TrEMBL record:
Every AB hydrolase-1 domain range: 84-188
Xref: InterPro entries: AB_hydrolase_1 (IPR000073), AB_hydrolase_fold (IPR029058), Epox_hydrolase-like (IPR000639)
Highest taxon of the lineage: Eukaryota
Species classification: Eukaryota, Metazoa, Spiralia, Lophotrochozoa, Mollusca
Family membership: Belongs to the AB hydrolase superfamily. Epoxide hydrolase family.
Database matches in Pfam families: Abhydrolase_1
Spans traversing the lipid bilayer: 12-36, 205-222
Name this polypeptide is given: Epoxide hydrolase 4
Entry keyword set: Hydrolase, Membrane, Transmembrane, Transmembrane helix
Hydrolase recorded as keyword: yes
Gene Ontology molecular function, alphabetical: hydrolase activity
Length: 348
C-alpha cells in the first residue's frame, strides 16, 4: 500500500508539474494576444439566445431523453425502432450533431441513435471530476442500450467517445456486434505511446493544461471561443472538404453559453488523468473493429493507429490521407462508405 501511495504521489507531482508548465506558456501567449489584438476583442463573447435551426431539423431524427441511474441523457434517433441499433458516441467539446452525416446515412438499415454524453449538450451535467471517469461513461452506454430496448448494438465512437467505445467493447463483448472507431486509439495504447514518443507528448500538451481548474475554460472562451474556430476550421484542423462548416462551429458554441458550461466536457480529461482507468478497461476487444483514421490529426500521431492493433483480435484500419481529427465530419462520404462496407462484410 505504501509503495502504491508513493507511486501515485510521484505521478501526480509529474502531471501537475507539466500542467503548471503549460499554464505558464499559455498565459504568456494570452498576454501577447491581449497586447497585439486588444482586450476588447479577446474578451468579447457573442450572445447566442436562439437555438440553431440545425438542432431542430427533423431530417436528422427525433429527439428524446433517457433517465439512467445517475443522469438524464438526450439523444436523437433516426430509423425505425424495429431495426438493429447503431449507437453513436461523440468526443470532447462536441454533441450529437457531430454525427449529422451518419444519422441520415444509416437509417435505412439501422435505428441510428446519437447521444449527448453526460455533461454535454442537453444531457445532465453532474458536478465533480469523478463523475466523468471512463467507468461511469461505460456504465452509461450499457444502460442506454438496455433503455432503448436492445441487448446489443453496432457501436461507433470518436475522440473520447472512441475511448468509451474501446472500453465498453472490451468489458461487454456480448453487447456489441461490431465497433467502429474514428481517430481514437485504445486508452491504454495511448497511455503507453505518449510515454515513449516525444512527438505525441508534444501534441498532448493540452491534456496537462486542461488538468488545471478554470484556466482552460477561460482560455477556450477568449475571442468568442476562438479556440473552437481553430480546432474545427483553422489551419491546425486540416479541414478541406467544406463538410465542416461555420454553422457547425456556431452550433457548438451555442451549447456553451458561458465558460463554466465547458467544465463537464473538460472533466473527461481531468477525471482520467487523475483517476486512470483500471486494467479491466484495457481488455483486448474480441469483436470485429474498423478504425478510421484521418492522417492530418493535430492531436494524435498516426503511429497510434497501428499500435492499437495490439488491443483487438480482428481489426481493419482505413487511413484517409487528407482528413483531420474530425474525420467523420471532414470526409463523411468516405467514412460512411467504409462503415457500410465493413458492416456488410461482417454480416455475411
Amino acid at each position: 500500500m505504501g509503495v502504491k501511495r508513493i507511486q501515485r504521489g510521484l505521478y501526480l507531482l509529474i502531471i501537475y508539474g507539466l500542467a503548471f508548465a503549460t499554464a505558464f506558456l499559455t498565459i504568456v501567449r494570452v498576454g501577447v494576444l491581449l497586447v497585439t489584438k486588444g482586450p476588447r476583442k479577446m474578451l468579447h463573447k457573442k450572445r447566442r439566445e436562439t437555438e440553431p435551426l440545425c438542432f431542430s431539423d427533423p431530417t436528422f431524427g427525433t429527439h428524446g431523453y433517457l433517465h439512467l441511474e445517475e443522469v438524464r441523457l438526450h439523444y436523437v434517433s433516426s430509423g425505425s425502432p424495429d431495426k438493429p441499433l447503431m449507437l453513436l458516441v461523440h468526443g470532447v467539446l462536441e454533441n450529437w450533431y457531430s454525427y449529422r452525416y451518419q444519422l441520415r446515412e444509416f437509417s435505412d438499415k439501422y435505428r441510428v441513435v446519437a447521444i449527448d454524453q453526460r455533461g454535454c449538450g442537453d444531457s445532465s451535467r453532474p458536478s465533480g471530476i469523478k463523475e466523468y471517469q471512463l467507468e461511469r461513461m461505460v456504465k452509461d452506454v450499457k444502460q442506454i442500450i438496455t433503455a432503448l430496448g436492445y441487448s446489443k448494438c453496432v457501436l461507433i465512437g470518436h475522440d473520447w467517445g472512441g475511448a468509451v467505445t474501446w472500453a465498453f467493447a472490451g468489458c461487454y463483448p456480448d453487447m456489441v456486434e461490431k465497433i467502429v472507431v474514428c481517430n481514437s486509439p485504445h486508452f491504454h495504447c495511448f497511455r503507453n505511446y505518449v510515454r515513449t514518443h516525444w512527438a505525441q507528448f508534444k501534441k498532448s500538451w493540452y491534456f496537462f493544461f486542461f488538468l488545471l481548474p478554470i484556466l482552460p475554460e477561460i482560455y477556450i472562451g477568449l475571442n468568442d471561443y476562438g479556440f473552437l474556430d481553430r480546432i474545427f476550421l483553422g489551419k491546425t484542423a486540416g479541414v478541406h472538404t467544406g463538410a465542416m462548416t461555420q454553422e457547425y462551429v456556431d452550433a457548438v458554441k451555442y451549447i456553451f453559453p458561458n465558460i463554466s458550461s465547458m467544465t463537464p466536457s473538460i472533466n473527461y480529461i481531468r477525471a482520467n488523468l487523475l483517476h486512470p482507468p483500471s486494467s479491466r478497461y484495457g481488455q483486448k476487444v474480441t469483436k470485429p473493429v474498423l478504425l478510421i483514421w484521418g492522417c492530418r490529426d493535430f492531436s494524435l500521431e498516426n503511429g497510434l493507429a497501428e499500435k492499437t492493433k495490439d488491443f483487438a483480435y480482428n481489426m481493419d484500419i482505413k487511413y484517409i490521407k487528407d482528413a483531420c481529427h474530425f474525420v467523420h465530419m471532414d470526409e463523411p462520404e468516405k467514412v460512411n462508405s467504409y462503415i457500410r462496407e465493413f458492416l456488410s462484410k461482417q454480416s455475411r
